[in-house]
Amino acid sequence: QVQLVESGGGSVQPGGSLTLSCAASGDTYSYGSYSSGCMAWFRQAPGKEREGVATIDSVGTTSYADSVQGRFTISKDNAKKTLYLQLNTLKPEDTAVYYCAADSSPFLCLRNALAEPKSFGIWGRGTQVSVSS
Question: Does position 30 have pLDDT exceeding 90, yes or no?
């Protein structure tokens, strides 16, 4: 059984940067089923629906929401069993709880996975990112 734990959130000023991490517990074989599938970051601001931020597939192909394109970067280190999200040029509207998610389906990232949060099989508990001056 794989569990995901996010870290790295915090409070920053507009224009600042953060690096979020999502560490996976469990054996390497179980983690491998997810890293060979589809991994993603979502976020949810107060009073809003959960929003897809970025996905990464088994070979490292990435996709981003238009709102974060060019500012955020998703990556993963399979040896460390960790998913990352680099957040640059942060804006107040980026304030939200950020969640990592994963699914073993290799097909999920081939379609619009950012719009399908319910398709992801496992989730972390989230880490808060607050951007204000």
Answer: no
How high does pLDDT run on average in the chain?
95
Tokens of 14: 């507009």
Percent of the chain's residues with pLDDT above 90: 86
Pairing mode of beta strands 82-87, 18-24: antiparallel
User: Quick one: three-class SS letters along the chain?
Assistant: CCCEEEECCEEECCCCCEEEEEEECCCHHHHHHHHCCEEEEEEECCCCCCEEEEEEECCCCEEECCCCCCCEEEEEECCCCEEEEEECCCCHHHCEEEEEEEECCCCHHHCCHHHCHHHCCEECCCEEEEECC
6 in Cβ contact with 24 (< 8 Å): no
Question: How confident is the model over 100-118, as pLDDT tens digits?
Answer: 999 999 899 998 899 899 9
Per the rule left: phi > 0, alpha: psi between -120 and 50, beta: everything else, 51 is beta
Residue 115's region, left for phi above 0, alpha for psi from -120 to 50, else beta, is alpha
